[in-house]
Amino acid sequence: MDVFFFILIIAGLVWFWMDGLRSREFATKRCHAFCTENHVQLLDQSIHVNKVFPARKNGRLRLRRFYVFEFSINGADRYNGVAVEYNNSIEYLSLLHPEGEIIQGTMH
Fold first, then answer.
1. Is residue 72 a contact partner of residue 41, using CB atoms and an 8 Å limit?
2. Measured between alpha carbons, how far is 18 from 74 in angstroms, rounded to an integer?
3. CB proximity list for 45: less than 8 A, separation 6 or greater
4. Where are the beta strands (DSSP E) in 1-108?
5. Are 91 and 81 spatial neighbours (Cβ–Cβ below 8 Å)?
6. Structural contact between residues 81 and 67, judged by C-beta atoms closer than 8 angstroms
7. What backbone torsions phi and psi does residue 63 show, to the nearest 5 degrees?
8. Beta-bridge mates of residue 105
């Protein structure tokens, strides 16, 4: 019985890790495209998980991941951006631009 629970825990951890990799890759592509559309550069070509919460939408329980990233306007400055991914879609994407926040999507 103990072996079964150990295997179940390992399988859950592997699923969580693989799902996180898939989510991060998807969100990175969307953040890069959003930065390109707004004529800014995604710095370090990466984003980082800030928070992960379980969330229910349309009766289904999934993980909602909050990502942060940095972008630059002229290559010498750094500003923050935020992305929220839920179930293979970006719910919210924001560039905290010094001339005003640029937002795509809304949180429900």
1. yes
2. 35
3. 28, 32
4. 41-42, 48-57, 60-72, 79-86, 90-95, 102-104
5. no
6. no
7. -100, 135
8. none
From 93, 73, 76, select the one nearest 84 (Cα to Cα).
93
Nearest-5° Cα angle at 94, 93 to 96: 165
Taking residue 44's Cβ as centre, other Cβ atoms within 10 Å add up to 11
Question: Residue 4 in 3-state DSSP?
Answer: helix
Question: Which tokens sit at 39?
Answer: 């004529």
pTM of the model: 0.84
Question: Using CA of residue 96, residue 100, residue 105, residue 106, what is the dihedral sign?
Answer: positive
Chunked in runs of 10, what are the mean pLDDT values of the chain (108 residues)?
Answer: 90 93 94 93 90 87 94 91 92 91 74
Give the residues across from 69 on adjacent strands. 81
Phi-psi region of 44 (alpha: psi -120 to 50; beta: other; left: phi over 0): left
